[in-house]
Amino acid sequence: MSVPARNGQGFVAGSLIGTLGGLIGLGGAEFRLPVLVGVFRLGTLEAVILNKAMSLVVVAAALLFRGGTIAPGTLADHLDVVLNLLAGSLVGAWWAAGHAITLSRQWLNRIILVLLVGLSLVMLSEACAGAHEGSTPLLEAGPLRFVAGLIAGLGIGMVAALLGVAGGELLIPAIVLLYGLDIKLAGSLSLMVSLPTMIVGFARYTRADAFQVLREERPLMGWMVGGSILGAAIGGLLLGLVPTGWLMGLLGIVLMVSAIKTFQHAH
């Protein structure tokens, strides 16, 4: 395939994934990873690193786009939630990224397959349960909730580092359930947790030989990021036209099938 055709394919893929992500309020990185491995034939670790770099740009853009939706003062009032989750997620991201570098590709494929299937099940369960609009917190403010937030952050940070994703599909339900906050506010707070978590994981990956993929695949990354940002904007404009529950259920099935097909046979 010629370089222009490959870059064009990256732009189209990024736009489609970004649009679907924008429709359900996610970055779409979990869908981008199977595409990088299955369509563009990148090695698993190289795909994770490239996915992480693209996720950083997309999440930073999303945080700027959402600046007018939620007032900065409102976000500042819930800074304790961000710090609670960050205390766990930063450690989880650092640990998981360090181990991903040393794992054999076969084991990395198996772990990523399990995590992507797990994310698809989370999406399917959310589709069945319906979107949460905020309610009574699962735990009252205190040491117990702080420890629960640490544990949740630790697990989410590990998943985000291993898949190169922002982790919004896990962070948003965690914030809604643990702290009883509205889902729109939870979406902005999750981005505030995701950005530092991804930076830590990204910094850890700089020690890997596979990090050179950022130089080798710079054109593809640029076109996919451009498409993802455009798609996210389109998805935001189309928000409400498609029932979120139906779309989330469909995407959960698509993610599971693509993950199994891609990573079960990846070498």
Topology:
Elements: H1 3-24, H2 29-38, H3 44-65, H4 72-77, H5 79-102, H6 105-129, H7 143-163, H8 168-179, H9 183-205, H10 213-216, H11 218-237, H12 244-263
Kindly provide the radius of gyration, computed on alpha-carbon positions and rounded to a whole number of angstroms. Answer: 17 Å
Largest sheet at a glance?
Answer: none
Give helix % range.
Answer: over 70%
Portion in beta strands: under 5%
Write a structural description.
With 267 residues, the chain is an all-alpha fold. Helix content is 78%, strand content 0%.
Task: Provide key terms for this protein.
267 residues, mainly alpha
Summed up:
The chain is mainly alpha-helical and 267 residues long. The protein has helices at 3-24, 29-38, 44-65, 72-77, 79-102, 105-129, 143-163, 168-179, 183-205, 213-216, 218-237, 244-263.
